[in-house]
Specification:
43% helix, Rossmann fold, single chain, 326 residues
Length: 326
């Protein structure tokens, strides 16, 4: 078997010669268009093997200049430490890289003026499509500008009808979490940071149970506020459904310091199945969202729109992960 020695600055023509194919065939594989020109999977795999062995990197700057395109996807999120982002970003990057695109991600920090600057910057960079993280809402006038420039947009999270989005079924998150707490015998349950969609599922689980259940909504913006006093309230709920693992983990550690037994005196349920849930002093029961898959689905929807396909949406299903906190 011939060993191919990688060298820097290789061209598509050289890759084609090594693979015994045309330059057009190599270009089609690099741009994920090999099916359109009817290459066989065997030929595609042969080209891919040469690309991998030579560690070939296409000249994206030259490619962009030749095609008058940027080959860049823009992405806007509220903040970097958003609990779902790292895994979702891996899913997005894996697909954009496979398609020969770069990803330019920027954060709004929940600042409308900053968001407007970011949008204008991404337009100036000639991004070919835009991904919006959960909670990002673009003004209608700017959406019209994007449409006029034929820049498709996909929302990560639910979006209005007719728009393309990839989300996890929020109602099912609430349903799975609440059903689990009810099955554990809890009838007084506090909720914090749970979205209206999650509450739809919570209400459905309660209706299906046919039981009298008291739901308390934590009245403070900061869940730690007045928490120490609440722990020792004789009439407090016996379980708490929290909208993020990170906050649920903070509550758990605070409860332990106050001598509250978990889960005997207080059961705790989080959402997202992040590292915070796994590494908590008492591992957290949580509702897991398929974050990597959501990222890939959003990116695929965006590429579909860029290829002229109609707007579609993907709704992914969550899973209950039972640990020691309930």
């Amino acid at each position: 078997m011939t060993t191919i020695r990688p060298k820097s600055g290789m061209t598509i023509r050289e890759i084609a010669e090594l693979a015994g194919v045309s330059s057009a065939a190599v270009s089609a594989v690099l741009n994920n268009r090999w099916k359109q020109i009817r290459l066989t999977e065997q030929t595609r795999n042969k080209i891919a093997a040469v690309i991998k062995e030579t560690r070939f990197q296409p000249n994206t700057a030259g490619k962009a200049l030749a095609y008058r395109r940027s080959f860049v996807i823009g992405m806007i999120v509220e903040k970097i430490n958003f609990s779902f982002l790292p895994e979702a970003l891996e899913g997005i990057e894996d697909l954009t890289e496979q398609k020969g695109y770069g990803l330019l991600m920027m954060t709004t920090r929940k600042d409308p003026a900053r968001q407007e600057r970011i949008l204008n910057y991404l337009l100036a960079r000639n991004v070919e499509g835009m991904l919006l993280g959960p909670g990002i809402d673009i003004p209608p006038t700017f959406l019209e500008t994007l449409a006029a420039r034929v820049i498709p947009v996909v929302q990560m999270g639910e979006a209005p009808e007719g728009k393309s989005f990839a989300c996890v079924d929020g109602a099912q998150i609430g349903y799975l979490g609440m059903r689990h707490l009810l099955e554990r015998g809890h009838q007084r349950i506090a909720c914090w940071g749970t979205s209206p969609m999650i509450h739809e599922g919570i209400d459905r689980a309660i209706r299906e149970s046919g039981r009298e259940v008291r739901i308390d909504h934590w009245p403070f913006c900061d869940p730690m506020e007045s928490m120490d006093q609440w722990f020792h309230d004789t009439d407090r709920p016996t379980a708490m459904f929290v909208g993020s693992d990170e906050v649920a983990s903070r509550i758990l550690h605070r409860a332990i310091r106050q001598g509250v037994k978990i889960p005997e005196e207080l059961a705790l349920m989080g959402v997202n199945d992040t590292q915070a849930a796994v590494e908590a002093a008492i591992p957290l029961t949580t509702v897991s969202q398929p974050k990597y898959e959501q990222g890939q689905a959003a990116a695929q929807l965006l590429f579909d729109l860029m290829e002229g396909k109609p707007a579609q949406s993907v709704v992914l299903q969550p899973n209950l992960v039972v640990r020691e906190s309930t």
